[in-house]
Amino acid sequence: MPQPGASADRDTDTTPRHTIGEVLTALRGDFPDVTISKIRYLESEQLVHPQRTPSGYRKFSLADVARLRFVLSAQRDQYLPLRVIKAQLDDLDRGAATPGPPGDDAPAASLLSAEEFARAAGLTDGQLADCVEFGFVTTDAQGRHRGAELPVARAVAGLARHGIEPRHLRVHRTAVEREAALLEQVVTPALRARSEEGRSRATEQLQELARLSAQLHSALLDARLREVLGS
């Protein structure tokens, strides 16, 4: 994820000269779903701070555009809620590093060859083929893999080191699909909202539901394993 505001020419980066329409055009190539309403909403949430002309028009600097890219990438690739992204931006503003997940050496939006993906995930070629067959990771028309799927592949690789192969894990994928369908039912009415603010709040709700669902899964598994250990 690019760090906002990083440039050899800070004066140029921080000069407010771009209209919101120009910013939208600059972002649309990487984020086709972005809208002017979305940019305004991110401003209202204090994630970007464009200056205003005397007549009230917004003017964005290159640093502002970089911040918007940071936010949109974090939402799209890491599914982070806005409060977490804002905390990361605050850390960056203070000069602190914002670490990614351990071993996350490939950008989430990148496309990797099967060989690169298997090496980054710690999978053998056969295990990667099984991951594709059983639906844990996907490929595009050229057989490439998305960097965003590396966390799943690395988890599968870790279990494989204990003798649990991808074919044994189909129950996990089935359970996740059912769980996702349940959570989707909860937020679908809100996701149909026409306002960008309504959709953003629905996204935040879905992320919170996902976190709680993962917490429940972890707690139930922990309780069951304590029974196995007799503790």
What does this structure look like?
By secondary structure, the chain is mostly helical. Helix content is 58%, strand content 3%. It contains ten helices and four strands, in the order αααββααβααβααα. It has helices spanning 10-13, 20-28, 36-44, 62-78, 82-93, 114-121, 125-133, 150-160, 170-191, 196-229, and strands at residues 51-52, 58-59, 111-112, 145-146. The strands form two sheets. It has a two-stranded antiparallel ribbon. Strands 3-4 form a two-stranded antiparallel ribbon. β1 (51-52) and β2 form a beta hairpin. The longest helix has 34 residues, at 196-229. It is globular, with a radius of gyration of 21 Å. Mean pLDDT is 83; it is low at 5-11 and 97-105.
| DSSP strand count | 4
Please list the strands of the largest sheet in the order they lie side by side: 1-2
Q: Helical element count?
A: 10
- Characterize the biggest β-sheet: 2 strands, antiparallel
- Identify low-pLDDT runs: 5-11, 97-105
Helix content: 55-70%
Cα gyration radius (Å): 21 Å
Based on secondary structure, the structural category is mainly alpha
Shape annotation: globular
Elements, N to C (H/E): HHHEEHHEHHEHHH
> Averaging pLDDT over every residue, what do you get?
83
Distance between the termini: 43 Å
Strand percent estimate = under 5%
Q: What descriptors fit this protein?
A:
two-stranded antiparallel ribbon, 3% strand, mainly alpha, 231 residues
